[in-house]
Amino acid sequence: MICLLVFGGCSSQKVVDAGAGRYSVTATSTHGLLAARDRAVNLANHYCGRSGQQAVVQSFDDQRLAGVVGDPTSSVVFTCGAPNTTAFSR
Fold first, then answer.
1. What mean pLDDT do residues 17-42 have?
2. Residue of 1, 24, 70, 76 with fewest CB within 10 Å of its CB?
3. Rounded CA gap, 38 and 44, in Å?
4. Continuous segment of H or E residues that includes residue 22
């Protein structure tokens, strides 16, 4: 249920193995291109988070008029890496 609220049906968003340890996921948003990018990154982080890692974004492929009803769509290519825990360490 939380997944549906946070990601708007994330089970329908498939992460694709792009080879060489890279993955891709696509998201669409009615709130504009930046929201579509944010949603794609959240989906990537959710995918990597299952193994205790975070998404390391390599590139975006944006389409301003795509998706089912012409909403902006963003595809993100990413790898999974160790979370950055050094920002607040002393």
1. 95
2. 1
3. 10
4. strand 22-28
